[in-house]
Amino acid sequence: MPLDSSPAPLNYPSAHRSDVVDVLHGLSVADPYRWLENPDSDETQAFVAAQNTLSEPILAALPERAAFADLVSRILHAPSVGLPHERHGRTLAWVNDGTANQDWLVVADDGGVPSLEDRILLDPNGLDSAGTTAVTSWSVSPDGELLAYAVAEAGSDWRTIRVLDVATGALRPDQIAWTKWVEPTWLPDSSGFLYWVHDAPTGATFADVTEAGYLRLHRLGDAPADDVTVWHRPEAPKLFAYPDVAGDWLVIRYAAGSSGPSDLAVRRLVPGPRGVDVDTDEVALTSDARARWAVLGARGSRLVLHTDDGAPRRRIVTIDPDGVGAGSVPEFRELVAESADGVLRPESALTADGLVLVYSRDATHRVVLAGFEQADDDGVPVGVTEARRAVDLGDAVTVAGLDVEEGSAVVHVRTVSFTDAGTNHRVVTAPAPKHKVLAAPRGAFEVGEVSVTRPRATSADGTEVPMFLVQRADLATGAPRPTLLYGYGGFRIEVNPEFRAIFVAWVAAGGTLAVATLRGGGEYGEQWHDAGTKDRKQNVFDDLYACAEWLRSSGTASAVAVHGRSNGGLLVGAAMTQRPELWAAALPTVGVLDMLRFHRFTVGWAWCSDYGDPDDAAEFPALYAYSPLHRVRDDVDYPPTLICTGDHDDRVVPAHSLKFGAELQHALSGETAGSGPVLLRVDTRAGHGMGKPKDAQAAEFADQLAFAAHHTGLDPELPVADA
User: pTM, whole model, 2 decimals?
Assistant: First the structure.
C-alpha cells in the first residue's frame, strides 16, 4: 500500500506545562510534565484517557490492522506444552489448548509427559474475572508434595505467595504479601521456604522507591508475622539478597544493581526443633563485589558456582565453605575453564553424574554434557571428563528453559527459535546418554520456510555488529522489503533467536525482521556488556544506527521501523531523537526515557549499575547527553511514533512514556514542526508485560504491527499455502 504523502495534522490532547526546574550539578533542567509522575492523580488519569481516546480510533482504522489482529491471535492461541519438570515420580508443565488467556499448570501423576488431558493443578485464569492476575514464579518442595507459587496483579512486580498440595490441589492457608523478585526457595526437608519481602508501601504502591528488603524463613502453617528474618541490611538498603539451598548450606548472593557484581555468604543448615534451621553464624566467601556469581548446587563438601571471576566468558569453580576461616583467603578451584568457543551460561546445571553445560556462541546456544572426575568416595569433583558430549538441539536455537531434579540423570531442555515456539527435549546422561525430542501438541503455529542469515554491520568506532536477518524464504532474494529492526543492548541480557508473536507475524506477513546483537548485552561475555554501559552507552545506539544503515545500503530494507521494550524502549527513544531520519516508524514500549529521574522510582536505582547514577556529577553528563526526554526539540521532523506502556507498570513507571509522549506532541504542535504522528497507547490494569493475557497481547501487537506496516509500506500478504 502507498505511504501517506501528507498526513493531516492531529489535535493532540492539551497538557499544561508547569514551571518545574531542577538545578542538577549546576545545570538548570526544566521538567514541565513532572505532574505526570503521579499515576493515581485525577489529572494524570484524565491525560491517559484523552490519549487513548485519540489513539484508539486511529489504530483501529489502519487498513493493515485486521490482517495482523487475526494473524497474531492465531500465533498466540496455538496449543503449547512448556518445559517438563520431574519431581518425585510426577511431571509438571505449563500447557494451553489454545483457548485460555493464561497457561494452566498441569501434573502427570504417572510421571509421563504432561499433556492437555492431564490434571490441572493450578489455573491462573480463575484468579480474577479480568484475567490480569498471573503466576510469576513457582517452586515444588524437595519431597514433591507442595507447590509454592507467587501471583501478581495487573502486571505488577509485587507478588503474593500461596501454597497448595500437589496431590490434591488443595490450597493451604499460607499467604505472604509484598514479596518481590525471589521465587520461594525450599529448605531441604520441605518444612518451609525462604523468600524476599518488603514492608507494605505507605505511599504510591506502583511508583515509590523499593528499598531495604528482608530475606525471611517461613515455616508452613505459621503466620507471616512470625517468620524469622535471616538477612537484612538496613544500613545498605539497596542490596538485594538471593538465596540458594545447596547441600548443607544456605548460600546468600547479594548485589546492589541489576547487572553489577555480587558477593557471596553462607550459613550452615542445621537440625532444629521444627525441622531444618538456618544457623545465625555467617561466613563471607567474597566481600569485594569483584564478580558475578550463580549457585549450581553442591557435590560432597564443596559448592559448585558459575562465575565471571577472572573469566569474562565465564567458568565454573568449587569451594569448601568449611575451609574458609577468619583471615583466610577463600580457595576457589576451577572445575570448568573459560572457553574461547563460547560464553558459558548460568543455566548450566548439575546432574547425577556431572554437568550439563549451556554455551552461547554468536548468540545461539548449544548444550554439552560433561562427567565428573571425582577425588574420593565423598563425591568431591576435581574436574570434568575430556570427552564432552554435545546434544544435537538443532541450528540457530536458544535454550529457553532447562530443568534437572536434584540427584537425577534426566535433563529436560526447551529450545526456541525464530520459527519454533518451543521444542522439549528429554536427555538422559547416565549410564548411557540418550536424547529424545518430545512430541509437540497438535495445532502448533507453522511459520513456513524461512531464511535466517547473520550479516554484520560496522559501528562508528569500527566494531563489528552482528544481526539476525529473518525473511520468508520465497522473499529472501527479492527486492528491498519493509523491515522491522529490534534491539535491546543492556544488562548482560542476550538477544537470541526467539519465537515472539510480533516477530513471527511481521515475517509471515512478508516483512523482513532484523534483530541486532548490540553491545551492552551478554552475547560475547563481560567485555561486550561493559562496552555498552555508563559513559559507553552511546556505543549501543551507534551499533543500532550501523545496522539500520546497512539494511538500507545493502538493498535489504525499503524502509525501517525500529522497536524495543524496556531498556530497548530507551534504545528507540535515543534512536528517534538522535537519528530521526533513519526511521519510517518508531515503537518504544515500556521504555526508560527520563535518564535523570529513573532512579527515583521503584527499583530504578538498581539500573545505575548499567546506566550510571544521575546524582553523581561525573556520571551525569553522559546520561543528560542522550536522555530521550531531554533531547526533544521543536524544530525536528520526528518519525511516526507509537508509544506503548501500562498504567500499573511498577518496574519502568508509566511516567517515562507519558512525559516523553507529551513532550513530543508539544514539539509537533509548534509552527515549524512536521511529520509524526505521535500516539500514546496506555493499557489499563497492565504492567511491564509479565502475565499479560493473550487477548491483551494480541491487541497491543496488532496495533504496533499495523502502525509499523502503515508507515513502512508493508501490505500484509501471507504465503499462498496459508492464505
Answer: 0.94
